[in-house]
Amino acid sequence: MASLEKRTIGDLNCHIITAEKPECLVVLCHGFGAPGDDLVQLGAHILESQPDLMDRVVIVFPEAPHSPEEMAMYGGRAWWPLDMAQLNRAIESGDFRDLRKEAPELLPVARKAVVGVIEQLHEELGLTMANTIVGGFSQGSMLAIDLTLHANEPPAGLIIWSGTLLNEEVWQAKKETLQGLPIIQSHGTVDQILPFEASRWLETLLNEGGANVQFIEFHDGHTIPPEAMDAAVGLIRQTLET
Question: In this structure, which CATH number among 3.40.50.12780, 3.30.1360.20, 3.40.50.1820, 3.40.50.720 belongs to the domain 4-96+105-161+225-241?
């Protein structure tokens, strides 16, 4: 029977939905400013809606290491810092946020920490990258993309909920590693945080790398719609069947 645990794995605190006979590991990274357990209910909903997956799928939710001062009072975490004043101005004015040239200094540090979580769980569960899906929401999805592009072995799939094109020079140089990779990418057409057009730039890069991208366009803002969760279930099932 699946249960929810919280423990430190490597350098990160993690929430984990366990499984009795794990055949697939799903790693989901939360977005900027969210608490470490932000996506746990979503993961639980995915499994509860698919009872036959409950004992076969482990879902881990790593908690970002940084606690921005302005968000500490409600447990907000970050994989790397953002200029909140600049972000708020962009949202209020409707300015287009083009992050293609952004290369966060702490992105490699965050990537290494999540890789450490994955490697330890592989050892514990007897799984490999071939049984592992990585993904996340917003900043967490950017981290998942970067991790996938730098991985020694590709994961079984990648989930990008409301992500954007970041660190373009590096990602362009590594895009060929995505050949044949199943990717779920969803983005709202009225997203005020990360513009829809930029998500299409990202989709183009992924396709140029040879990935099999399922792009889910929905009329809403910075969120995860039901159809994107359904697509994640489909990716999990696909991984279990291969």
Answer: 3.40.50.1820
